[in-house]
Each structure stands twice: as structure tokens, then as C-alpha cells.
């Protein structure tokens, strides 16, 4: 009896595996069509400077308007995109769309804010990442100073020689480099300072647990102190409550991002968060003298 039962369980498991595999294959062919059918959309989430209240940059977050399954969050399709190599095309689309959006805001005098794009480590496997980014900037007319690249801490720690060189070049061109989900990737201080990083984004799990766990609080404090000693900008992600905001302010955190300020929203909705400073901000050559 037990054997028969085990067989049934196995059969069921087998069927589930098949269903899973079929779902993947379907999703993958859907993914390829999704670009042609224009089913991807970017939402934007502001990062706000705690001292001035100004939006410093907006992060582009991809969503897939699936015809059958509705709006899919990135965790439903980024992994599959990475494993299948589709991530290269997807990232190109995200970069192009985000940069042209930032250029539009600028042209419509809605503001000069940086746009931040998440780069998958799989994307680096192509040898022409830098050229791909530069060609998007050229095609959209966006200045490099208005593009920010986010890479997760764990991705940064892989392949360090190459990544380090790449980011040094991107930074020399004027782009901003941010480390996403910081605190989860076990990087050491001595390691981190070798990378040409502008900004650390503290992972939202620490922000979430900070109010009830003294350990998490201590980690946040340490990350902020470390970032400051390395002259890095510090952003807390996933800020949802005023208590968290106050605590982070006390700790000297520079910027916050999270539902407290805004969820990721459509391009025309995020401009509501731009302040006059964003509108007036001109990226002029700092060497130029002030007009009399
Ligand atoms: P991430 O880059 O760390 O982005 C932050 C995620 O946290 C976003 O989820 C955002 O909606 C969510 N979030 C922001 N504030 C809060 C908050 O206050 N509370 C909570 N609970 N969540 C908050 P989303 O949009 O689902 O993106 C998930 C991840 O998918 C991103 O994490 C990023 O790693 C990846 N991703 C998104 N867009 C892209 C893309 O264009 N390319 C690549 N390679 N990855 C992307
Ligand atoms: Mg990010
Ligand atoms: Mg993040
Ligand atoms: Mg995160």
C-alpha cells in the first residue's frame, strides 16, 4: 500500500514538475513576444534627500502587462530572463525607455532628475555593456550624469576585476554607481572601497527589522558610518513608516526610498514629486564662471 501511495505521490510530483516546465516554456515564448507586443512598462520610484526633500533620482522598475496573467512583478520573470539570455534584450529596452523618459522630463521642463536602472549581472556577460549603454545615451540625448546604474551587492562581488574596471569607466563618463540590497552580500569593508561606488542602498530587510531588532539597528548604524567614512551616499530602501524615517534621520542617513514617499508609479505620476530645485537644476559645466 505504501508503495502504491509513494507511486501516486511520485506521479503527482512528476506532473507538477511537468506543469512547471510547461509554464516556463510558455512564459519564455511569451517573453520573447512581449517586447514586440509592447507589453513591458516602467514604473518609477523616487529617492528623496532627507535634508532638502528634493528628489535625487527615480528608479525604473519593470512590469510586464501579461495578456492572460495581468501585471507581473519582476520576480516573476527576471530569473527566467536571466537563465534564457533574454535579459540582454530586456535590459536594452529598459535602458532605452528610462533614458528617453528622463530626456523627455528634461525637455518638457519637468525636471532634471537622474534615472536609475537595475543591471543584472548576466548582462555583464556581454562584452559590450559599456558600448550598449553609451549608444542608448547617444540615441536618447541624455547626458551620462543623469543615468544611475544599480547593481546588487552579491552581483558586484562576483567577477570583481572586470566589474571594477567597467564601473570605473562608467563613473569616469559621469554616471552614478549604486549598490543595491546592501548588507545581504557579505562584502568586507576592505573589499568595498576598491570599487568605484557612489551610493550604498541599505537592503529593506534591515529597515523593516530596525525598529524591533537591536542587531538590525546596529547593522544600519554601522553601514551608515562606513559609507560616510568612504565618502559614499547612503539610501535606505523600503521605508514605510514615519518611525523608520525619524530613526534614519537621527542616524544621518542621506536619502530614503519607499512606500512612505511613494510606491513605484507611472512616468507622468512620478513628476508630482519633483520639486522646484529639480526643475531649475541645470547640469552646466562647473568650470564656467557665474554670470555677473
Ligand atoms: P530592487 O531594485 O531592490 O527594487 C526595490 C523593490 O522593492 C521594488 O520591487 C519596489 O517596488 C519594492 N519596494 C520599494 N519600496 C518598498 C517599500 O516601502 N516596501 C516594500 N515592501 N517594498 C518596496 P519590484 O518592482 O517588484 O522589483 C523587485 C526587484 O526586481 C528589484 O529590486 C530589482 O532587483 C528587480 N528589477 C526590477 N526592475 C528590473 C529591471 O529593469 N532589470 C533588472 N535586471 N532587474 C529589475
Ligand atoms: Mg534597485
Ligand atoms: Mg534594492
Ligand atoms: Mg531590494
Automatic annotation (TrEMBL):
Region of interest (Disordered), ranges: 279-292
- Please state what the protein is called: Diguanylate cyclase/phosphodiesterase, HAMP domain-containing
Q: Which organism is it from?
A: Citrifermentans bemidjiense (strain ATCC BAA-1014 / DSM 16622 / JCM 12645 / Bem) (Geobacter bemidjiensis)
Species classification: Bacteria, Pseudomonadati, Thermodesulfobacteriota, Desulfuromonadia, Geobacterales
Q: Which domain of life is it from?
A: Bacteria
Occurrences of domain EAL (ranges): 24-278
Amino acid at each position: 500500500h505504501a508503495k502504491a501511495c509513494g507511486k501516486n505521490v511520485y506521479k503527482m510530483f512528476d506532473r507538477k514538475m511537468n506543469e512547471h516546465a510547461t509554464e516556463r516554456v510558455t512564459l519564455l515564448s511569451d517573453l520573447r513576444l512581449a517586447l514586440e507586443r509592447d507589453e513591458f512598462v516602467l514604473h518609477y520610484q523616487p529617492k528623496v534627500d532627507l535634508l532638502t526633500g528634493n528628489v535625487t533620482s527615480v528608479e525604473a522598475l519593470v512590469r510586464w502587462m501579461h495578456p492572460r496573467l495581468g501585471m507581473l512583478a519582476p520576480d516573476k520573470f527576471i530569473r527566467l530572463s536571466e537563465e534564457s539570455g533574454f535579459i540582454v534584450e530586456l535590459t536594452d529596452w529598459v535602458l532605452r525607455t528610462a533614458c528617453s523618459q528622463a530626456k523627455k522630463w528634461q525637455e518638457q521642463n519637468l525636471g532634471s532628475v537622474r534615472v536609475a536602472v537595475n543591471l543584472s549581472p548576466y548582462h555583464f556577460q556581454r562584452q559590450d555593456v559599456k558600448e550598449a549603454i553609451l549608444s542608448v545615451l547617444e540615441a536618447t540625448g541624455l547626458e551620462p550624469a543623469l543615468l544611475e546604474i544599480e547593481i546588487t551587492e552579491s552581483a558586484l562581488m562576483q567577477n570583481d576585476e572586470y566589474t571594477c574596471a567597467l564601473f570605473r569607466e562608467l563613473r569616469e563618463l559621469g554616471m552614478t554607481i549604486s549598490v543595491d540590497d546592501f548588507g545581504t552580500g557579505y562584502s568586507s569593508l576592505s573589499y568595498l572601497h576598491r570599487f568605484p561606488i557612489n551610493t550604498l542602498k541599505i537592503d529593506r530587510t534591515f529597515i523593516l527589522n530596525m525598529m524591533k531588532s537591536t542587531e538590525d539597528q546596529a547593522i544600519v548604524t554601522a553601514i551608515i558610518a562606513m559609507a560616510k567614512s568612504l565618502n559614499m551616499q547612503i539610501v535606505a530602501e523600503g521605508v514605510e513608516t514615519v518611525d523608520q524615517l525619524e530613526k534614519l534621520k537621527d542616524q544621518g542617513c542621506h536619502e530614503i526610498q519607499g512606500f512612505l514617499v511613494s510606491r513605484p508609479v507611472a512616468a507622468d505620476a512620478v513628476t508630482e514629486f519633483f520639486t522646484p530645485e529639480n526643475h531649475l537644476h541645470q547640469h552646466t559645466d562647473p568650470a564656467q564662471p557665474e554670470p555677473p
